[in-house]
Amino acid sequence: MSIDAQVHADAQETSAACARAILDVFSKKLASGRPHANIAVSGGSTPKLLFAELAKAKFDWTKAHIFWVDERGVPPTDSQSNYKLTKENLLDAAHIPATNIHRIQGELDPHVAAKLYVEDIVKFFGLKPGELPRFDIVHRGMGPDAHTASLFPGEPLIDDRTNIAGAAYVEKFKQWRITLLPGVLMNAERTFMLVCGDDKAEPLEQVLYGPFEPKKYPCQIGVHNGHGVTWFLDKAAARLIQQSKGNASAP
Ligand code: 6PG
After folding, report:
1. How many A from CA of 151 to the centre of ligand 1?
2. Phi and psi at residue 26, in whole multiples of 5°?
3. pTM for this entry
4. Coil, strand or helix: which one is 171?
5. For the CA of 45, the nearest atom of ligand 1
């Protein structure tokens, strides 16, 4: 399978490249006459650098709507909150209007939070019953266990191709999470995978070149056919695939 991948020296350069790509898509969307662009961002730790790069950019953030790929079942002030990570590194610095911020209410019962998030998405995209949103960009990461969003290996929601978001209990963290579901991830116009670090090298090789087993490698969801997918990798994460299995381009 040929992949559209960029390999950069380190997490900082990789994040900067991903930020440039996001802003390029945003600019093209606005130039085409759209009043705003939209993105669903992920959390964890890698995105901190990405958010800081985006915050530095000269961009009119009143023209962008921010959604989340997933959220932990915690209040927005909790150190584990993906919203908090984004707020502290992008939302505040870029002065993104509250009307453009579509927070998952992690402080609520996870099933209630998922329902409210779906209602927000349905309203924003003007969806009819059964329709799925098509985000301009979905930014995802990948865990060392090949999880993505809050879809961890073995999670039954990995088979859900029809619903927009759901609540998943993550046993390994003893934590409820709210997550976009595979149908939405697969429907993204562009998927930007930002994956850095040596601990991602082995799962990345499996995700890209192993058998299609999304229950085992959830990160294969929405990327295995490669459509609209760009991988932003640092050298450490690309260690096993740069031996020219794919067409991962070095900088
Ligand atoms: C989360 C994220 C999650 C993340 C991976 C990778 O809530 O933790 O949305 O899916 O993308 O855990 O995180 P890192 O890129 O920080 O390793």
Report:
1. 10
2. -55, -50
3. 0.96
4. helix
5. 16
- Ligand 1 centroid–CA 32 distance in Å is 32
Convert the pLDDT of each residue in 4-38 to its tens digit.
999 999 999 999 999 999 999 999 999 999 999 99
Distance CA 19, CA 94 (A): 14
Nearest to 143 by CA among 189, 187, 179: 179
84-118 core/surface letters (b: 16 or more CB in 10 A; e: else): bbbbebbbeebebeeebebbbbbebebeebbbbbb
Q: Which of 54, 68, 219, 214 is nearest to 133 (CA)?
A: 68
Distance between CA atoms of residues 121 and 102, nearest Å: 8
What's the start-to-end Cα distance of the chain, in Å?
20
Residue 69 alpha carbon, nearest atom of ligand 1: 9
Which CATH fold topology does 13-244 show?
A: Rossmann fold (3.40.50)
42, HSE (Cβ side, Cα atoms, 13 Å): 23
Pocket of ligand 1 (CB under 6 A): 42-46, 69-70, 82, 140-143, 147-150
Q: What are the sequence ranges of the domains in the chain?
A: 13-244
Torsion of CA 147, 61, 38, 116, to 10 degrees: 80
